[in-house]
Amino acid sequence: MSAEGDAPRFTMLGGVNQVGPDGLAQCYAYPEAHAVDPRSCWVRGNMIASIDGGATSGGKSGDLGGVGDHALFAVLRGLADVIVVGASTARVENYSGVRLSATQRQERQHRGQAEVPPIAVLTRSGCLEADATLFHRTEVPPLILTSADAVSDTRARLGALADVLDASGSCTDSVDLRVALDLLAEKGLLRVLTEGGPGVLGMFTEQNLLDEMCLTVAPALVGGNSVRIVTGPAEVHTEMQLSHVLTDDEGCLYLRYGRRNPARCGEAL
Ligand SMILES: NC(=O)c1ccc[n+]([C@@H]2O[C@H](COP(=O)([O-])OP(=O)(O)OC[C@H]3O[C@@H](n4cnc5c(N)ncnc54)[C@H](OP(=O)(O)O)[C@@H]3O)[C@@H](O)[C@H]2O)c1
Asked: One of this protein's Pfam families, by short name (predicted)?
């Protein structure tokens, strides 16, 4: 092959196509039912990072995102069967239930989904306050996926407010993500959206359970000690494949990557 043939090819991304709200939902549609193993979940991560890779500004992710990111955040929630989040993020970001527009509800009905997806919180300890907005500012009760060691106490405190499930595997003091995903699949919650945080995404990444990753790059530098969007003790190398890049008037980039070698669900994006 010629030297030119071997050379990497670069493409200048140009703003040729405008993507409206309907188009946004189409850009992020989960794989067709036939592409998803009906017994297992399709797991999508959605995170925001600054240009220098910070996952937070002032301790939260909220200040990084502008109107475009908020719009995408809402679209992704509208497409999911369940939103999985770490207990720390639920506490820090003061999570409450998912709010959807009338149009999103109609579209969900059309796709055979429940009107509103629940939030599922991963927690070893089960330490969530009973008066948290997670339990009270919501149309549907959240799921609490906790450890065998914590499940009885958590169910006693929160069982009237949430569906508390033992998602432990062989280690009784933590949640096994595969067990957690199987529990969600049993409930028909196959289109999973995880909003992190970095610790939880680290678990998904380490176990090769992320089918795709959506990343907003915010046009900001944060410096300091802001964590990355994925943290954890184990380093892995999972090849991902770019599906699309969008941008908006604020200069955010919206990247969608699928796993290059689909390991569980049989088909790439
Ligand atoms: N940039 C972004 O897009 C983005 C998104 C989300 C969050 N954030 C930021 O990230 C920070 C929080 O992230 P984080 O990494 O500290 O926490 P996290 O991933 O949200 O949650 C960690 C918590 O998950 C639970 N957990 C972890 N491993 C577990 C296991 N094996 N089994 C059961 N439960 C387990 C534990 O809860 P218990 O302590 O209850 O046992 C742990 O404290 C916040 O500052 C938030 O603002 C940024």
From this structure: RibD_C
**Cβ(120) to ligand 1 under 6 A?**
no
Per DSSP, helices labelled H in the chain are 3-6, 21-27, 67-79, 87-92, 102-111, 133-136, 148-158, 177-186, 198-206
Mean pLDDT by runs of 10 across the 269 residues of the chain is 70 75 90 66 97 95 91 97 98 96 96 97 97 98 98 98 98 97 96 97 96 97 96 94 93 95 50
Residues 6 or more apart in contact with residue 159 via CB below 8 angstroms: none
CA-125 nearest atom, ligand 1? 41
Q: Whose CA is nearest to atom 7 of ligand 1?
A: 197
How many angstroms does the Cα of residue 86 sit away from the middle of ligand 1?
4
Mutational test site, ligand 1, from 88, 127, 129, 153, max ligand atoms within 8 Å of CB: 88
Tokens of 15: 């703003």
User: Could you give the CA distance from residue 17 to residue 268 in angstroms, rounded to a whole number?
Assistant: 24
Is pTM, for the whole model, over 0.85? yes
CA of 34 to the centre of ligand 1 (A): 32
